[in-house]
Amino acid sequence: MRPAPCPNIDETTEPEDKAVADPLSDETLKLWNDTAKNNREIFTEVFRPVPTNEVKDWNAYAVRVPIAYPSLLANGRSHLIRNTYRR
Questions:
Q1: Which of 59, 58, 41 is nearest to 49 (CA)?
Q2: What are phi and psi of 85, to 5 degrees?
Q3: For 43-53, how does the pLDDT look when each residue is reduced to its tens digit (9 = 90+)?
Q4: What is the DSSP secondary-structure string of 1-42?
């Protein structure tokens, strides 16, 4: 979108706009939920958040959370985390 007073191009005929034209349709709900699931999977893979439903016990926690070594800590902040995970 361009700021006013610049005219914007009419994009209401684009496939992306048509896909969400009716926010209550089953197709829009499926698109919304599939996009959310995909985004969550990517976020989980990249950032490995804890807590998560994937960590159900301490062994799973140990595998998921990287080891930070005190010698690599400066002022309580980790500047380097070893690239391996507990097993």
A1: 41
A2: -120, 150
A3: 988 888 888 88
A4: -PPTTSPPP--TTSHHHHHTSSTTSHHHHHHHHHHHHHHHHH
Tokens of 54: 């994937």
Q: 3-state DSSP call for residue 54?
A: coil
Amino acid at 35: T
Of 56, 57, 83, the closest CA to residue 69 belongs to 83
**C-alpha dihedral sign at 87, 64, 39, 34:** positive
- For residue 32 the two structure tokens come to 């919304």
Gap between the Cα atoms of 65 and 15, Å rounded: 42
For residue 55, what are its two tokens?
């960590």
Tokens 């507990």 belong to residue: 86
- Using alpha carbons only, what angle is made at residue 18 by residues 15 and 24, rounded to the nearest 5 degrees? 145
In the chain, the largest separation of any two C-alpha atoms, in whole Å, equals: 60
Q: What is the pLDDT of residues 5-32, one digit of tens each?
A: 888 888 889 998 888 999 999 999 999 9
